[in-house]
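step=encode ok
step=design start
structure_in=
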């Protein structure tokens, strides 16, 4: 059994926002790959709650809570009114790109797909008081006029553990993406504004592997 604790990662590259992956609790994983359940696409079965634009470029613990509360309440209202779509989604996290497959009513085929570039994800967390099984990420959306806005996206997972696995997978995708970008020279290893700290946790934050 591999026991690991997600570490806080930061990317400082002005004027872009600080990238932070927040996951305070230890999680247990039987393997480093998602559990497949005979799905058309590899990924985690989720319910997409939607997105909301938020302000700011520096994000700390709890910064997604109010946005997630609003999205949860909006979905509950839609369910009461019978306007909530019944189909689910699959969230597929890989280096460089996150894919959200919107499935058909039987959950067998992807009808549409939204993509998110890992390098534009400013923050992600599976730590929400309103519901422990919600995973959210803040994405830097580029507008047609080249300005950008920060959108908070949220999905409801099948369990709290699934949400934490998504946070773990996102952290791994982030590491691989920025390691490749740094190898290609797109991120400098030195420089006060371009530093990428792969592991900024303290020694007591680390949980040793059981093998």
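sequence_out=
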């Amino acid at each position: 059994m591999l026991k690991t604790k997600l570490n806080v990662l930061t990317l400082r590259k002005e004027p872009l926002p600080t990238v932070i992956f927040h996951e305070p609790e230890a999680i247990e994983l039987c393997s480093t790959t998602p559990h497949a359940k005979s799905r058309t696409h590899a990924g985690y079965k989720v319910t997409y709650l939607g997105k909301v634009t938020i302000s700011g470029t520096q994000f700390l613990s709890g910064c997604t809570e109010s946005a997630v509360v609003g999205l949860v309440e909006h979905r509950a209202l839609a369910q009461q009114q019978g306007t909530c779509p019944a189909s689910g989604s699959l969230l597929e996290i890989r280096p460089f790109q996150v894919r959200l497959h919107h499935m058909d009513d039987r959950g067998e085929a992807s009808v549409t797909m939204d993509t998110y570039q890992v390098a534009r994800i400013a923050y992600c967390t599976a730590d929400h008081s309103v519901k422990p099984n919600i995973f959210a990420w803040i994405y830097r959306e580029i507008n047609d006029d080249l300005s950008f806005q920060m959108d908070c996206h949220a999905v409801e997972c099948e369990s709290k553990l699934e949400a934490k696995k998504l946070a773990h997978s996102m952290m791994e995708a982030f590491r691989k993406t920025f390691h490749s970008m740094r190898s290609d020279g797109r991120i400098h290893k030195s420089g006060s504004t371009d530093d990428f700290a792969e592991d900024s946790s303290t020694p007591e934050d680390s949980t040793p592997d059981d093998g």
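step=design ok
step=annotate ok -> The CA atoms of residues 121 and 151 lie 10 Å apart.
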